[in-house]
Specification:
Blueprint (H helix, E strand, L loop, with lengths): L1 H8 L8 H32 L15 H11 L6 E4 L5 H8 L4 E5 L2 H14 L5 E5 L4
Parallel strand pairs: 1-2, 2-3
Length: 137
């Protein structure tokens, strides 16, 4: 009987306490949100930061409207295609495509290439303006 008494002192859990279950769910939710936010920041920031870590740093500087006007003026009465190395957000390529030139832009930053493709589509020149992710170093 003493063995029966020892076994009766041991209590096995029959159900999970709902309060502790809710607390642990909040922990998972919080960890997931913070982890997801950090991954997102990393994915967005990396293409902009890594070019600065190169031996030769070339930052993205968008073309001004005057520079775009000058390029378009230089293209008048010419034939052929335009290639923009380091096309950034695609302003020059899109302007050339609007003037009827087949134009190609090469850019290292994938976010800028995707944005350029979107802008070309929005401007209606996605057929004659092409953008490629390329490291020409």
């Amino acid at each position: 009987t003493s063995e029966e008494e020892r076994q009766s002192d041991r209590v096995l859990p029959t159900s999970v306490d709902s309060d502790s279950w809710k607390t642990s769910n909040w922990g998972f939710l919080f960890t997931g949100i913070i982890g997801g936010a950090l991954v997102t920041v990393y994915a967005v920031a990396t293409p902009f930061i890594t070019p600065a870590l190169r031996k030769v740093c070339l930052p993205f500087v968008p073309a001004t409207s005057k520079q775009i006007e000058n390029v378009v003026k230089m293209l008048q009465h010419r034939r052929g295609s335009l290639v923009d190395i380091g096309s950034g957000d695609g302003r020059i390529v899109i302007a050339a495509a609007k003037e009827g030139f087949p134009a190609v832009g090469y850019e290292l930053n994938p976010w800028l290439v995707w944005y350029s493709r979107y802008r070309a589509w929005r401007e209606g020149v996605h057929g004659s303006a092409k953008f490629y992710i390329s490291d020409l170093w």
